[in-house]
Design a protein that fits this description.
Layout: E1 2-7, E2 10-15, H1 17-23, H2 27-32, H3 34-52, E3 60-68, E4 72-80, E5 94-98, E6 107-112, H4 115-127, H5 131-135, E7 138-146, E8 149-157, H6 161-171, E9 176-177, H7 181-191, E10 193-196, H8 200-208
Parallel strand pairs: 3-5
Antiparallel strand pairs: 1-2, 2-4, 3-4, 6-8, 6-9, 7-8, 7-10
Helix pairs in contact: 4-8
Length: 212
Amino acid sequence: MKFEKISENKIRVTLTTQDLDEKKIDFHVFMSNPIQSQSILLDMLEEAKKEVGFDPEDYNLKIEALSLADTNFIFTITKVIPEIEKPKNAKKKFTVKKKNLIPSSTQAVYNFRTFDDFCSFLQLLEKSNLLTFAEKVAHSISLYCYKGNYYLLMEDISPEIVHKIKFYANITEFAKYITNSKVFTSKLKEFGNLIIKNNALQIGCQYFVNKQ
């Protein structure tokens, strides 16, 4: 189990297949059984407190679960900061949200609300040395603009799991996966404006990421 502290109020927990076997965690049970889910989450939070100093005491929590090709799982856990401080003995509340699974088809579309969000994602790829892995996710990665939003269209996606894990674990922080990607792809190509063709990540990093 791997713990990453994104900020004081947010962490990311990655469970591998081995972790799931050792802890006897069934992802489908986790998403469908609230009672068992809370037990698993409490154990996870105890370890997070020891590993990265993430203390969820007295906070409600928002938990987003992402399945990576049915082998690895990522949980993004965020403290919900109340506008008005609640009593210390307030009962902890879990809000679990199931994110879209990794696309199983050979294409996918991700929606960035702004061009700055796209650039922030590129900055992360550069800073974390993940650009090489990201480029291997799909044979063609293009950027479109449609109705004020920016869309990353990936076609001929690689079957290699290792590339997908590194890519999808990070892009969900900046963009939203479009579930009806095949239908939306046709709409993008017909009505959208093509900004960068084929090598959107590499070209984007070359021209829009501050190298300093």
